[in-house]
Amino acid sequence: MQGTSPSRTEIPADLPAEFVLADEMGWQAAGSTRPNPPVGCVIVDSAGTILGRGATEPAGGRHAEVVALQAAGARAAGATAYATLEPCNHTGRTGPCAEALIAAGVAEVHYLFADPGKAEGGGGERLRAAGVTVSGPYLEPFHLGEHRFSVEPWLRAAYLGRPHVTLKFASTLNGMAAATDRTSQWITGPTARADVHADRQYREAILVGTGTVLADDPQLTARPGGVEGPRQPLRFAVGQREIPSSARLLQPGAHALAGQHLPTRDLEAALTTLRRQGISDVLVEGGPELAGSFLAHGLVDEIRAYLAPAWLPRGLPALGDGGIGSTSITDLQRFATRSVQRIGEDILWLAQRQTGD
Fold first, then answer.
1. Which cofactors go with this protein (predicted)?
2. Which end of the chain, N or C, is less packed with Cβ atoms under 10 Å?
3. Catalytic residue among 18, 24, 65, 302
């Protein structure tokens, strides 16, 4: 694992090396900043010495640039800042980060992605107008590089107008998620299962169907090392079937808030509800029916698949057909591979919907 980032991949070599630390700072905030993006920032002097670093604080708190500026103090004058998102140019609960950088006397600013917000964007131009040397954006929001940056789900949600959806599933080589009699709970090994809990820590929300709640009664909490940690996603069940009030998803945990039931089969409506709660990043961990429905409605933006080197003659499929009948090749949905990594004895495949699909 690279620092605190769950991506496990090297940052592209053609990017300034300071973005490595800036992104690590962003991952420290991931999952805790909604509705704001989990930005990271680092400030260095002309010799590359780190003067300050920062990550976005929970809503109402300081933005990453301000945290880094306050750590650098007077040394920020004449220094260079690297941020994973264009400094904001908007006064909300806090003042504009662009103005804070100007007031501190920062001489140069590099940012990784442009801010698409109508009110928040434009920080780069504001900095240039004040005489600051500005470089950015270095990447497009739907880039297909192997490395996953902490701000990507938030950024893509801003363009999509709904939460960014990652579909997670585990399967055998022939696509089975469980035996027909459910005699075995686990398809993948302990390293892959631990990785699932590590990934949950950085998610804003997890969503399953009511069928999964009734069949498996999952907790859906992040339990790295087997213990519920302080970083917890919001938990949701979607579907019209009633679920018992005793369901573990609905119970608060040591750090997790009580989950919510969204009594609808309309997935777009469910995502709209989540968006209204400030959620930009949703991990779908439901069964084959829910997974197939998300795919059939074109609502899957990223796939996180754990593939076990195992074969099960017959079983329960990891992915359903979404209720679609006969198909033609025009119904094919393509995803682009971002990375393939070995996780213990299993393989983790990360893929992203191709732009325009």
1. Zn(2+)
2. N
3. 65
